[in-house]
Amino acid sequence: MTDRRLAEDVRIVGSGLLGTSIGLGLAARGVDVVMDDVSPSARRLAVDYGAGREPAAGDAPGLIVVCVPPDVTASIVARELAAYPDALVTDVASVKAAPLAELRAMGADLGRYLGTHPMAGRERGGAISARADLFVGRPWVLAGHDDISYRRAGAIEDMILDLGAVPIELDVERHDRSVALVSHVPQVVSSLLAARLSEGDGAALQLAGQGLRDVTRVAGSDPALWVQILGANAPAVVDVLRPLRDDLERVIAALDAPEAPGSRRAIADALAAGNTGVARIPGKHGQDRRFSQIVVMVDDTPGELARLLTEIGEAGVNMEDLRLEHSPGAQIGLAEISVVPEAEQRLVAELEERGWTIAGAFA
Are the beta carbons of 67 and 38 closer than 8 angstroms? Predict the structure, then answer.
């Protein structure tokens, strides 16, 4: 495929989930991608998956993407800047202020460096989990600083757009505060709640529904990587955790004395504040709006979910989101379909006419 914005050859350092996914996406668009890694076997695996080719003498990349753990990001970026004096260098670490400060202290050429952060990933890492479409529709931050202009870094934005992501410009400090709120603290909360499950007996875990799975989904992430991320962004993470702790203590106090004056209001206010917050999360295409949910019962047989999605399309309704719930041992699953409110009644009627059982519909 030659329909692309990026004109430069690309060198990717680090062949884990993000590096290999970037390589797959760019290679599919006809970009000459070189994959490199401190581990020869990891590099060869990424190459085998089609993420790029092995390094060769005379390589002259125009763009270098560093995809390594946060604690070595700055040193690898500095090495690449020195080894390829004509190349633009970026990285995809999830913390931006610390690597920039390290590079500045090293005296690196910051006029050729702009850090970025794709807000995409999976619970499992490595080249084996990589996908060419991992970044489609996802925000990808360009973390600006005074030593380089966004125009000079145009090739980085071209790469982001070629991978189907949405570029967002933030300075490094605002980026780190933002990801503390929307990524780093949720990881901590998810992990802490999931840790409580080790104390539950088998009967309790059999009752687990989609709500628990949603809250604990990211708890399966790599602890070693997250120790680095949280340590590098500790002040911003603590700034979110402290008021969260205060909110939790107020709820605990209310539940300790649920009949005391004001206790029920304290609990209700906490839950209502959650309603307000979740309503601010942008939906598809960045829309800040609420959708109606339709819950459809789906037989646990091959092809049934595909048939449901096909018939939603045939009904002329645009699906905004999809969640699946399947209890262990059950012969049916529940598909929660999000649609714009004005399409709810029409879709319910259409699906019932086609023989589907609607388990619930709510705004």
Answer: no
Domain with CATH 1.10.3660.10 in the chain: 178-278
Q: What is the CATH number of domain 178-278?
A: 1.10.3660.10
Query: What's the CA gap between 80 and 116, in Å, rounded?
Result: 16
Instruction: Tell me the pLDDT tens digit for each residue of 17-44.
Output: 999 999 999 999 999 999 999 999 999 9
Q: In angstroms, how far apart are the furthest CA atoms of the chain? A: 76
**328 Cβ partners below 8 Å, 6+ apart?**
206
Question: Class for domain 285-362, per CATH?
Answer: alpha beta
20 in Cβ contact with 51 (< 8 Å): yes
For residue 196, give every residue at least 6 positions away whose Cβ sits within 8 Å of its Cβ, in sequence order, or none: none
CA distances to 31, 81, 90, 105, 144 from 112, rounded to whole Å, are 21, 8, 8, 16, 12
Q: Which range is least confidently modeled, 7-21, 52-66, 136-150?
A: 136-150
**End-to-end Cα, the chain, rounded Å:** 42
The model's pLDDT over 147-158, given as tens digits with 9 standing for 90+, comes to 998 889 999 999
Tell me the CA distances in angstroms from 183 to 25, 295, 304, one per residue in order.
Answer: 24, 28, 34
Enter the CATH code of domain 10-170.
3.40.50.720
* pLDDT band for position 107 (cuts 50, 70, 90): very high
Pairing of strands 357-362, 292-299: antiparallel
User: Do residues 117 and 179 lie in contact, with contact meaning Cβ atoms separated by under 8 Å?
Assistant: yes
Instruction: Using DSSP, state whether 340 is helix, strand or coil.
Output: coil
Residues in the chain: 363
Residue 11 has pLDDT above 80, yes or no: yes
In the chain, list all ranges with CATH 3.40.50.720.
10-170
Distance CA 295, CA 325 (A): 10
Residue 240: strand, helix, or coil: helix
